[in-house]
């Protein structure tokens, strides 16, 4: 057995209990495994194959080093699209043990034309030799009613399972691995990721140096702290600047100015690393809030709500129903991070938001770009904002004039913060 398969004893111990999810046309289709052949219809993933002769493969990225694993998975899609013959199809897939935390393994599902199978298989054998991926191929019987999964190891097929339909899991599989991977809940976990990725991203150590040596990220300042949240172009900058001027407050933002030189660099990295960067930004901003909040009220443009809501909304796909359920621990505020006195989320009709974006004519992050043409993503972000608890957020309609929005938020601040 190949070395990486030995390393994966725990994965194989429960291999037959695993469920596999393949994303087709944006929706996940699930299948499971059985050791004994039983009668039944082929799972949808296979019955949906356009061309009956198509060959299918799955690649699961299994390195035990999570930084390398995320980075390899992140870069693998491009590598597949570059190296596979034309006409091959690559979609996202994953494998997990239902309800078992941290059991999710991410990968890709491939379909190729039968005439390209030797080319594809040569490429997959090479890939497997890199000890980072677990390759399976799938074959159907004559009537394509019954499918078998062949687990590869060192160019050989070592295990075979019968493929069967599986029920849709009660929670989206991505939520199984979210804690301290997509969303961070304590500074130590954030630092651990950034320290470990120093080998492949030298900038990580410069970023870590921006963290004050004695962080008082949980301290409570004397003056109120008001966070303004919302999607891009909902009017956060306009409102936060007016609040600063009206209240004689200090205006801060997360990520803080000191991280600007590295932001574009970390925006290109896989979620684990990118989210750790933004999470660190919140802890640096928290320290600044504490210092400034001893002298005057503080207004903050984006904070932990942004980091968590975008991360959760990106990690799950599909409709809002796929988000972690309301009340889930995933929406809990980190216990070591300063809690603002008030969080206001600005909401805006999608058409008006687009109009403001166009008028501003600015470049957007890929995620903001995504918000524009993916209304499901936008709805997931807005709903995740709403579900985050401890401080909860108050939603304010940002479509009236800038002055009316300001007056409304001032009323909220006066009511909640006694200013
Ligand atoms: N209440 C408002 N009504 C109309 N236009 C607004 C309002 N608030 C902001 N804008 C305009 O919309 C655009 C986006 O606002 P901005 O404050 O930069 O948003 P954000 O900081 O949330 O990205 C700007 O051109 C701004 O002048
Ligand atoms: N505190 C923060 C702020 C931004 N972000 C990320 O940064 C992106 C939005 O930043 P942006 O610069 O476009 O926002 P605006 O300040 O332009 O409204 C989102 O994609 C978030 O993923 C974050 O994760 N945490």
TrEMBL record:
Keywords: ATP-binding, Coiled coil, Kinase, Mitochondrion, Nucleotide-binding, Pyrimidine biosynthesis, Transferase, Transit peptide. Residues 228-408 form the Thymidylate kinase-like domain. GO terms for molecular function: ATP binding; dTMP kinase activity; nucleoside diphosphate kinase activity. GO terms for biological process: dTDP biosynthetic process; dTTP biosynthetic process; dUDP biosynthetic process. Belongs to the thymidylate kinase family. This is UMP-CMP kinase 2, mitochondrial. The lineage of its organism: Eukaryota, Metazoa, Chordata, Craniata, Vertebrata. Pfam families: Thymidylate_kin. It is found in: Mitochondrion. Its EC number is 2.7.4.14. It catalyses: CMP + ATP = CDP + ADP; dCMP + ATP = dCDP + ADP. The gene is CMPK2. One of its GO terms (cellular component) is mitochondrion. InterPro entries: P-loop_NTPase, Thymidylate_kin-like_dom.
